[in-house]
Each structure stands twice: as C-alpha cells, then as structure tokens.
C-alpha cells in the first residue's frame, strides 16, 4: 500500500517530459474557467425564485403572502423576487448568506417546519433572524432598489415626508420601520419587540403566589371569569396588581386606582388627578357595582371634575408580569434615550408633569418606530418620573 502511494507521488511530482509548460498553464486556465463557470451556474440556479419555492415550506406559506403585496404587483410592473430581498448582491456577502442557508436545508430534511402549524410556531424566531440580519447590514437588499438619494419626497404625504427625511439623514435601515412589508407579521410579535424582547424571559420566572404584587410588561387582557372567556377590559403596561388566588393558569388579581366620575368611568388611573392609565374596563364591567367597589370621592381643583377611588378583582392569565418594577423602568429609560435622541436632545423625564407628558409624547411618536406596547411602557415611565414625582428640574 505504501509503495503505491509513493509511486503515485513520483508520477504527479515528476516534471512532464512530453507536455510543455504553456500547455499545462493553458489547460489549468481552461479548467479553472470551467470550474468557475460551473460553480457560478450552480450558485445562480439556487438564486432563483423557482428554487426558493421548490420546497413546500416556502411555497405554501410566505410565497402565498408575497403575492398579496405591492412587491408582487404594482403600477410600475417591477416585481421583487425572493432572492432580491433575501440574498445580498455583493459576492462575498452572497457566499456568506449561502453558507448560512445550509441550516435551512438541514431543517427541510428533518421537517422542522413541514406543516403550517410548525411554521407558525417558529415564525417569530425565523422573522427575528432575518430582521436582525437586515438591521445589521443597513437593509442592503432593500437599498439595491430603494435609494434615499433617488426619492421624490415632495410626492409623499406630509407624514411620510417627515419620517423619510429623518430616515435619509440618518441612513436608517429600512427594516426598522417596514417589518411585514412583504409577509405577514408573527401573531406573537409583541412578545419580542421593543422592550419586550428583554422583559419577556424575565416574566417567565414570575411567582404567582397569593399576595404577590406584580407589574405588567405590556397590555394584557382582563376577564370576569377564571376560564378567561368573558372579557372585562385591558391592563396597561407597568400597572400594579395584587394576586388574590390562582387556579391553574389563571389568577384573580386586585386592581386599585382612581377614575373620573364622568360617563361610565371606564379608565382606571394610578392616582388622583393624574392621567396615568392603569387599565380600561368594558362599559358592562365599569358600571357593575358587584365587580367595581367605589370609595371616597374628591373634586379636582384644576378641572372641577369629581374623581372616585375604586378597586376591582378580575381574572387574567399567568403571563407577562414581573415582580420588580425597576426592570421595566430600566428598559423603558434606555428606549427613551436611544430613540428620542436621534433627532434632538430629548427633554428630561421631569421636565413635564404626568398630565403634560401624553400630549408631548404622542406629538413626537410618529418620528420613531415603536410598537404600541412599547409606546405604552415608555409613556408610563415618563409619567412616573415626571415633575409630579421629581421636581428637581424646576
């Protein structure tokens, strides 16, 4: 065996006696061209929409959604295919993406998302990976077609002009604002967006024992029954509840606060005279004296409106709650600084009082990209750190 190896080595290492160096060089060059041509042909064959939808996971899910969007059919007749958005045009980035995509082949072989149910269950994870990639490269694939310098801003609506001018100035990544532009958003997207991406895992370790004081990380539904069938309203972000008892995955909680004695009194606020929303009840629940207990009534000197202190006990699911409010404020504070300092120096939290903050906040919210739950949490943070609680700025 060893002699054969040595004999083979002598053959390949001995200079050719009958073939010139020029012929060998030309042969190597031609072989390189054939190899390179074959490689690129194979590479481009995997870079077509036909190839992308050859597996039913893509064909029966995201491809069907694409056909309902402006990227599929539009007045200009320009269609964006799967590789246009998901494969970088730069060669080195393209090769890196192809290597990364090898995991998708593995998933196809082992049926990771071979049913609609499996696909929907993993949709948030899959989408998050792609959003992260596009965010990291500045939405390079989008900008192969959409260039800030070529945009006709005056043809946009006033609202779009304001946003796009600001995005252009900062060369903002398209995916920051345009998630779901070609495919449906995951149903459980809110569990991983904004502040919730970091807060959700913390909430999974919450102890729901009787007497525990907990705080919501996002808007959560309330119910009048333990089976969670009869809707009672909605709990706002960073609202405090006390656990009365637990039945399986349901908990009965007590919620206390103040409401205006005007109309049906559906909105529960955290404190007298301060519009810091804790929850919104349905009309039926807010007017049911068996569910809502009313106590003292005080008149607001500023508005002349009477306010009533109340408490109610309602049911909710054991999810989305934490025991430490500080983790909510820390996350919300970082979001406020990171988002509101893009355009200008943001005002200090205690620059306005709790009733002034909603008007200021919603007047500027169109310039940033925050989902509804994150907006609610950041506003609650600003109100709870306003001049009502810290007057050092005045």
Secondary-structure topology with pairs:
Blueprint: H1 2-13, H2 21-45, H3 49-52, H4 56-59, H5 62-66, H6 82-86, H7 91-100, H8 102-109, H9 116-136, H10 140-143, H11 158-169, H12 196-203, E1 213-216, E2 220-223, E3 231-235, E4 240-247, E5 250-260, E6 267-271, E7 274-281, H13 283-286, E8 292-299, E9 306-317, E10 321-322, H14 325-340, H15 357-364, H16 372-384
Helix pairs in contact: 14-16
Notes on the protein architecture:
By secondary structure, the chain is α+β, with helices and mostly antiparallel strands. Among the domains are: 51-187, Multiheme cytochrome fold; 206-322, no CATH class. It is 40% helix and 17% strand. The chain has helices at 2-13, 21-45, 49-52, 56-59, 62-66, 82-86, 91-100, 102-109, 116-136, 140-143, 158-169, 196-203, 283-286, 325-340, 357-364, 372-384, and strands at 213-216, 220-223, 231-235, 240-247, 250-260, 267-271, 274-281, 292-299, 306-317, 321-322. It has a six-stranded antiparallel β-sheet. Strands 2-3-7-6 form a four-stranded antiparallel β-sheet. The longest helix has 25 residues, at 21-45. The protein is elongated and about 105 Å long.
């Amino acid at each position: 065996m060893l002699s054969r190896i040595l004999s083979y080595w002598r053959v390949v290492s001995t200079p050719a006696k009958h073939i010139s160096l020029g012929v060998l060089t030309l042969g190597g060059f031609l072989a390189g061209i054939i190899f390179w041509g074959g490689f690129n042909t194979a590479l481009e064959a995997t870079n077509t929409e036909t190839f992308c939808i050859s597996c039913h996971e893509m064909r029966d899910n995201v491809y069907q959604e694409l056909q309902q969007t402006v990227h599929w059919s539009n007045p200009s007749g320009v269609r964006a295919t799967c590789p246009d958005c998901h494969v970088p045009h730069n060669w080195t980035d393209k090769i890196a993406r192809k290597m990364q995509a090898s995991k998708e082949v593995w998933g196809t072989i082992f049926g990771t998302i071979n049913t609609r149910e499996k696909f929907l269950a993993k949709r948030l994870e899959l989408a998050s990976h792609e959003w992260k990639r596009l965010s990291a490269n500045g939405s390079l694939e989008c900008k192969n077609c959409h260039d800030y310098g070529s945009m006709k801003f005056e043809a946009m609506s006033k609202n779009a002009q304001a946003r796009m001018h600001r995005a252009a100035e900062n060369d903002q990544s398209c995916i920051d604002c345009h998630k779901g532009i070609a495919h449906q958003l995951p149903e459980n997207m809110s569990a991983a967006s904004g502040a919730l991406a970091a807060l959700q895992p913390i909430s999974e370790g919450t102890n729901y024992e009787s007497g525990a004081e907990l705080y919501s990380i996002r808007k959560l539904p309330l119910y009048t029954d333990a089976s969670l069938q009869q809707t009672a309203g909605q709990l706002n972000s960073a609202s405090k509840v006390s656990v009365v008892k637990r039945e399986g995955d349901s908990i009965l909680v007590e919620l206390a606060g103040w409401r205006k004695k005007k109309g049906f009194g559906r909105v529960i606020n955290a404190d007298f005279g301060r519009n810091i929303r804790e929850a919104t009840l349905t009309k039926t629940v807010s007017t049911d004296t068996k569910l809502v207990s009313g106590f003292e009534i005080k008149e607001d000197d500023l508005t002349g409106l009477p306010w009533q202190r109340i408490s109610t006990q309602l049911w909710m699911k054991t999810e989305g709650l934490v025991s430490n409010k500080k983790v909510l404020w820390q996350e919300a504070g970082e979001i406020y600084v990171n988002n509101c300092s893009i355009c200008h120096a943001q005002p200090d939290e205690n620059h306005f009082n709790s009733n002034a903050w909603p008007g200021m906040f919603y007047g500027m919210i169109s310039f940033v990209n925050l989902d509804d739950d994150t907006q609610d949490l950041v506003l609650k943070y600003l109100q709870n750190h306003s001049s009502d609680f810290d007057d050092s700025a005045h």
